[in-house]
Amino acid sequence: MNKILIVKHLKETYQDHNQKFKALDDISFAINQGEILSLLGPNGAGKTTTVSIIGGYLIPTSGKVILKGQDITTTSKRPSIGVSFGGEMGFYRNATAKQNLKFFADLAKVPFRKQNDEVNRVLATVELSNVANKKIGEFSKGMVQRLHIARALLGSPSLLLLDEPTSGLDVEIAHTIQQTIKNLADTGISILLTSHTMTEVEKLADKVIILGAGKIFYTGTVSGVVNLANSTTQKSLDNLEDAYMALAPKLRRK
Questions:
Q1: Which is it for the CA torsion 187, 124, 200, 60, positive or negative?
Q2: I want to staple 142 with a disulfide (CB 3.0 to 4.6 A). Which of 161, 173, 200, 215 is the partner?
Q3: DSSP-based three-state secondary structure for 221
Q4: Residues in domain ABC transporter (predicted)?
Q5: What b/e sequence results for 187-199 when a residue is b if at least 16 CB atoms lie within 10 Å of its CB, and e otherwise?
Q6: Number of helical (H) and strand (E) elements in the chain, helices listed first
Q7: 227 CB-near residues (< 8 Å, 6+ apart)
Q8: Residue 45 and residue 194: Cα distance in Å, rounded?
Q9: Rounded to whole angstroms, how far apart are CA atoms 39 and 250?
């Protein structure tokens, strides 16, 4: 399969109270085109650091992040990556959805003559075309969350970084957003997903990486996590949440 993202021997070390702290300790993985990969791990495992480096918000101590054949840790001219951190913030509440997205399209360097079509395209993708001229202050949480995804899609990125895309939403709205994410992957967009909702990971993830103390503890499928937990604990677990909880003590920093 066509690998969109390749992470090679990524390390991130910084000083913490006169001691070196390894936030990431030599991690490597890849994401194929159209694949949804979910990062799991306890707080402090290195998930946020990994996403921050891939998104261009942090320069690693060493290692490479190769997106579509280009090492993006060493260049300012990097291929487009869509980032959605979600939440209530990030938009001008007194402006409409279309006005907000036209502003962000400009930041994403979408040519002016193409901005209107691009904004219409991403609004249609997340099924918000009917509220394009509605002010963000009148949006529900679910609508705002979908607008975050629309913003991340500006410029047609090949990779999306989605952080807790359904956090704080009710089950029905969360299901709608999960279906949107699946549909995006079906079009060939690769997705790196972080989520604390294990049922969501079970529904969406083609591949799972479990981080512990800055290292990769496991790479594989959801069913593989369950099998690993069962063989490790000699129990008969049948879902990701129970399996993850059984493995959690092994993931903590000493």
A1: positive
A2: 173
A3: coil
A4: 5-238
A5: eebbbbbbbebbe
A6: 8, 10
A7: none
A8: 12
A9: 16
Residue type, 164: E
Q: Determine contact, residues 211/192, Cβ cutoff 8 Å.
A: no
Q: How many CA within 13 A on the CB side of residue 101?
A: 34
Cα 100 to Cα 83, 107, 118, 144, 154: the distances in Å are: 16, 11, 13, 12, 12
Distances 236 to 1, 228, 231, 233, 245 between C-alpha atoms, Å = 34, 11, 9, 9, 13
Q: pLDDT tens, position by position, for the chain (254 residues)?
A: 699 999 999 999 987 777 788 899 999 999 999 999 999 999 888 998 999 999 888 899 999 999 998 898 887 766 679 998 877 778 999 999 999 999 999 988 899 999 999 999 999 999 999 999 999 999 998 899 999 999 999 999 999 999 888 888 888 888 988 999 999 999 999 999 998 899 999 999 999 999 999 999 999 999 999 999 999 888 889 999 999 999 999 888 77
Task: Check if the beta carbon of residue 158 is closer than 8 Å to that of residue 68.
Answer: yes
Task: Judge contact between 240 and 210, C-beta under 8 A.
Answer: no
Q: Which residues pair with 216 in a beta bridge?
A: 211
Length of the chain: 254
Residue holding tokens 């090492």? 71
Cα end-to-end span (Å), the chain: 38
Paired tokens of 7:
């992470």
C-alpha distance from residue 7 to each of 21, 66, 192, 208 (Å) = 20, 6, 12, 15
